[in-house]
Amino acid sequence: MNVLLASTSTLFGGNYLEYLKPEISSLFAGISEIIFIPFARPGGISHEEYTAKAADFFKILNIEVKGLHEFDDQISALNNAKGFFTGGGNTFLLVKMLHEKGLMQVLKQNIESGKPYLGTSAGSNIAGLNMKTTNDMPIVYPPSFECMGLVNFNLNPHYLDPNPELKHNGETRETRIKEFLTQNDTKVVGLREGNWIRKIGEKTTVEGGEKTRIFEKGKEPYEIEPGTAL
Amino acid sequence: MNVLLASTSTLFGGNYLEYLKPEISSLFAGISEIIFIPFARPGGISHEEYTAKAADFFKILNIEVKGLHEFDDQISALNNAKGFFTGGGNTFLLVKMLHEKGLMQVLKQNIESGKPYLGTSAGSNIAGLNMKTTNDMPIVYPPSFECMGLVNFNLNPHYLDPNPELKHNGETRETRIKEFLTQNDTKVVGLREGNWIRKIGEKTTVEGGEKTRIFEKGKEPYEIEPGTAL
Question: Quick check: B154 contacting A, CB < 8 Å?
């Protein structure tokens, strides 16, 4: 497999995908066209606008971007594609669309056959075993929470450390993930912004400038350094 | 109806339910025993521990608390009860339990018949039309997101204003609720901590010390004062 799963598309103060440019360039080396999956629609942006945003970045790399929504036969579109990028937004909306259109398994098979895959945020969540550790609001009801399982754990993108100064009783991210572990025995990778997961062949590592926080049932959460195998 | 839906059980630096004591006392006036629904299990606390925590508070009001989990026939337990309290925690877990045990409609009918109901956080969410505006993590898959619809809108408990100093690209609460409105035409009440909704008979008002933020499809979000009818 050849997979890059980023916590976020955009660093604070930066431009869209800018910080990932060398990694993305290497991921899609030799490929001149990819399919963009715009279904997560951040802030309700249209499929067309979202695809144009992605295309605008990939122009710098001389890679053409086609939005999956443009195809009448989306299963064939995935099967004929050379590579994929799924953008962030709402994971419930993304997973609902992929399941209802019968695309989740097709996308998985194509990636497992070796086609490169880039995910950011919600697009990274769907590479996990299921979407039960998303931060998103359940604005629609998907027929299932199961995802592609390209890696044998779940992701929590945009992982955020507790803010001790916040006078607010909503749960911290850590509390939420610990609640998940009372109901599930699945490893969760808390991916801070600026970090990403890279899977090449059978080897999966965590990359980027920050440590990564790992949550497992029955263990205290722990931190791993960039470059560590997962 | 006689319903109190609080954003949070506990104010920052305060004790459990302390700030709501006069309101709770008036809600359950003349009642000596209520049923506590502990299924949301905040932080994975057991049903027994959670019920003990609720009972500890209600002792001050001379109200006895029985946990719903203690009954073999939970439908009869709801039908025979004098009043109800559903505590906060994980809304997905709470809604899954209520649907799977066939209790959601039974609880609704009992409350609609006039029995007093107190909800905090997740327990307030289930009084809305559906749980699609919860902040919680989807740690389990409920058979449906539909809730009791005791009020004709959705709630967002622990409503939190955007923090302009946060250098993080996760969505704000407002962004999330606006995404909800791209997919749904349901009013959302953003209930800040310290505020609650009170429904007596057919009249529903928002109460507490803070303004309340209202989100409707096709409108800019707006603020209403304590005491305003919803």
Answer: no
